[in-house]
Amino acid sequence: MPLLVMKFGGTSVANTDRIRRAAKRVGREVANGYDVIVIVSAMSGETNKLVGYVEETSQLYDAREYDAVVSSGEQVTAGLMALTLQEMDVPARSWQGWQVPLKTTNAHAAARIVEIPTENIMAKFGEGMKVAVVAGFQGIAPDGRVTTLGRGGSDTTAVAFAAAFEAERCDIYTDVDGVYTTDPRITSKARKLEKVAFEEMLELASLGAKVLQTRSVELAMRYNVRLRVLSSFEEQSDEAGTLICAEEDIVESKAVNGVAASREEAKMTVISVADRPGIAAAIFGPLSEAGVNVDMIVQNISEEGRTDMTFSCPINQVARAEKALNDVKEKGDLNFREIVADTDVAKISVVGIGMRSQSGVAAKMFQTLRDENINIKVIATSEIKISVLVDRKYTELAVQALHDAFELEKA
Amino acid sequence: MPLLVMKFGGTSVANTDRIRRAAKRVGREVANGYDVIVIVSAMSGETNKLVGYVEETSQLYDAREYDAVVSSGEQVTAGLMALTLQEMDVPARSWQGWQVPLKTTNAHAAARIVEIPTENIMAKFGEGMKVAVVAGFQGIAPDGRVTTLGRGGSDTTAVAFAAAFEAERCDIYTDVDGVYTTDPRITSKARKLEKVAFEEMLELASLGAKVLQTRSVELAMRYNVRLRVLSSFEEQSDEAGTLICAEEDIVESKAVNGVAASREEAKMTVISVADRPGIAAAIFGPLSEAGVNVDMIVQNISEEGRTDMTFSCPINQVARAEKALNDVKEKGDLNFREIVADTDVAKISVVGIGMRSQSGVAAKMFQTLRDENINIKVIATSEIKISVLVDRKYTELAVQALHDAFELEKA
Question: Which of A67-81, A202-216, B391-405 bottoms out in mean pLDDT, i.e. has the lowest?
Fold first, then answer.
């Protein structure tokens, strides 16, 4: 029997009516001849409420108790989804993470999946069950305590099940109807993509297109799970949504498939450091140890043996980065005049696997921004992405201009 | 190390502030030198909300899924209680039912406890943990699915833990400060009892004094667990609340210790049945099969070979009782003229273990009601209880008169 994984996010199971609507979609796939594994999130708002309780209780909480508390929301929706399916005469039952058992590391609150044995659930499919409803986000550690996979972890649960059970596809039902060429709130020309390559999706996800948890895309890429993102709020055909798949499955690709904007980056400049071998290590080693996620790095032209080093990091890590650098300065391991943080920037990126084979993308990007008189502060590139930092006020203008320049409104 | 079980009901853990207040009580017992097992209910209102979801979803629900859903509330408070204790530097951790594991029958939604292995928790006490916080109400069936013990099941969980771990005492913290001679809303003369015998408590609990789940009192009696009921909302001494204990622990007892009133009974009369051997079996056999809880039974004087049979049962079972009797009539197994249901009655009972050794209690009760011109419709007696059915409008008058007559306001 072919098998599908269907995952429903928090807004798709926000109340018993929505659960019923989601269950109807599941029932349709069962009627199409599939065995289905359904992964559910908690009702929207529920996990935030539970996290709120934990934070009211304790600042430096025991992550094992955090996990015991916050994993309860998924258990509720899993049971309700199974009941709803039964009510529709679809044989179904629920599983909690520990019942599968979905085995994880013991890194509580951010556990990684180690193994998903398929025997228990396959045995029930063998007995005539048509739908296994599994509580997302949760698992069990080697010591028998409940773990969670980090916020958004139900996406990862879904992809991991699709990989373990060799599902034909993993459908992620959410409150948007797919992946867009850019944020539709920035330009109405934004177009839904039919297909996106895993690598592109990874860049888009990490750049702020919050459709899918990044880890779930990584996992899908590793195990070549065909992922589909689609809306649970629209009636739609089987071709709906966006398919996230291997590069080989995309026949022809434009150079640029999407423009992403992130306002969550800060630009930091370490002014007047000695321009000597090992200086990069002296700066970025301590930052890494302090848990600062450095993204772009630029070293300025050297003058009189000294230089400035510029990098970007998430805005909420600025204080941590400053402390880490001042600490090494105090210890005498690094000398600089001052650190200047600019939090009034935005990162604009163009992404596309076609970039690998097509040249001139960077030139076209820079030219487009120049035509709009937008100054570029930092540049970084990868094989399939070019990112620039610009003044934050230009965010919308830059996205709109690039979207037009690369003709993303056209399929 | 001496061990205590402390159970906190839903109103005592209704939010993080109340959990903190409860945790302080636990901390005090730890400071007194106890290892403590804390049993928690769900936050008040939470279980009703979850049951509501299930009932919205399905009328004839799968009790296994019901259990998966409704057991989630206790998991939340257990984790939060453990975190709160840790925050107070009391070494604590939470357990869910399946982690203990609290083994039950597979009678979902009304499971009975089969076994509570003590090794896991005792091992942690051995490692320096001072408090084990256990989610009440829930357990695990032989097939590995979550079960619940029925509404109010956390009381039963607490007593079962006290028995399994041979606790010195089981303290039930609730929103009342003990067991009273009668409902304080009926007479301000109602007095809190210092001690009540298990047998008395069982009669009082089943008569509508809803302080404790009846099963928990039965269990405490069987294993001789010293149970204490006390308020979690008042500062109190170690002598506070009401101790529920074996008869031997109560030095001297008055004939009557309490007056209970229940408005949840109906009086049913089967009119003109043949007065022949086996007629009681012909009536009460089918009622029992239909799940009707018959309480009091009276057979009227026979006239011309026919008689009337009167019994009482819970008001919400009247329809079921009528159907059961009409069914046997249709099958020809029973002949009667009609069934008359009187739902406008109340059951008034006086309860006391002292009744066993003191005579004249019934006479005094009947005389007291006669003096108030209250007509008695049905009488039933047990070793330690006398109950009568009266018109419902006399409920308060009867309770007040009996409370005065037996001088229950005096210690």
Answer: A202-216
Coil, strand or helix at A391: strand
Spell out which residues of chain B touch residue A78, defining contact as CB-CB under 8 Å.
Answer: 68
Chain-chain contact of B16 with A94 (C-beta, under 8 angstroms): no
User: A123-132, A270-279, B84-93: lowest mean pLDDT where?
Assistant: A270-279
pLDDT at B236: 61
CA A142 to chain centre: 27
A237 pLDDT band, cuts 50/70/90, is low
Helix A153-164 × helix A214-223 angle, to 10°: 10
With CB atoms and an 8 Å threshold, state whether A83 touches B19: no
Nearest Cβ partner of B65 from A66, A79, A98? A79
Q: How much is the pTM?
A: 0.84
Q: CA A172, CA A235: separation in Å to the nearest integer?
A: 15
Spell out which residues of chain B touch residue A144, defining contact as CB-CB under 8 Å: 99
**Structural domains of chain A in order of their starting residue, each with its CATH number:** 3-175 (3.40.1160.10)
Q: Which residue has the tokens 């029932």?
A: A27
Residues of A within 8 A of B98 (CB-CB) are 98
- As a whole number of angstroms, the distance between CA A26 and CA A24 comes to 5
Q: Which of B61, B64, B82 sits opposite A65 (nearest CB)?
A: B82
Query: What is residue A310's predicted lDDT score, i.e. its pLDDT?
Result: 93
Which of A76, A87, A144 is the closest to B99 by Cβ? A144
- Which site among A69, A70, A148 would you substitute to test the B interface, given the most B Cβ atoms closer than 10 Å to its Cβ? A69
Measured between CB atoms, which of A50, A53, A83 is closest to B54?
A83
B73 neighbourhood in chain A, CB within 8 Å: 72
pLDDT at residue A238 in the model: 58
- Per CB-CB distance under 8 Å, the chain A contacts of B56 are 16
CA A105/CA A145 separation, integer angstroms = 11
Average pLDDT over residues A153-162: 96
Per-residue pLDDT, A190: 92
What's the confidence (pLDDT) of residue B191? 92
Q: Rg of the Cα trace of chain B?
A: 24
Average pLDDT of chain B to the nearest whole number:
92
> What is the rounded CA–CA span in Å between residue A139 and residue A150?
11
